[in-house]
Amino acid sequence: MSEPSYEELKARLAELEKQGAGRRAGQLEFRVGEKGGVSVYGLGRFPVTLYYEQWVRLLDSAAPLRAFLDENKSAGKLKMREK
């Protein structure tokens, strides 16, 4: 098998960068793992993986969580990512 040419490598790199661009744009991606956990990609460096019941409990707590975040944001306790 021969080595790929410079142009072929350049085209492959452009293709890979195009595929990875969607993830870097802040889009979230969901996947179901072999053990049944649901992972969310795109929040940070590593995926967040929880099981169905855990996701339901977290979603049911959305309003109290948002209130907690707002309360602590105004107190200056949360680390905010600069834009």
Tag the structure with descriptive keywords:
alpha+beta, three-stranded antiparallel beta sheet
Briefly say what this structure is.
This protein has 3 helices and 3 strands. It has 83 residues and is an alpha+beta fold.
The string of secondary-structure elements, in order, is HEEEHH
Calculate the terminal CA-CA distance, rounded to whole Å: 47 Å
Low-confidence stretches: none
On the 0-100 scale, what is the average pLDDT? Answer: 87
Number of helices: 3
Strand content: 5-15%
Summarize the amount of helix as a percent range. 40-55%
Net shape: elongated
**Rg, alpha carbons:** 20 Å
Summing up helix and strand content along with how strands pair, one would put the structural category as alpha+beta
Strand order of the largest sheet: 1-2-3
The biggest sheet amounts to:
3 strands, antiparallel
Count all strands and give the number: 3
Helices and strands in order, then pairings?
Elements: H1 6-24, E1 29-32, E2 38-41, E3 48-50, H2 52-60, H3 62-74
Antiparallel strand pairs: 1-2, 2-3
Can you characterise this structure?
- The structure is a single chain.
- The longest helix has 19 residues, at 6-24.
- Strand 1 and strand 2 (38-41) form a beta hairpin.
- The protein is elongated.
- It is of the alpha+beta class and 83 residues long.
- The chain is built from three helices and three strands; from the N terminus they run αβββαα.
- The chain has helices at 6-24, 52-60, 62-74; strands at 29-32, 38-41, 48-50.
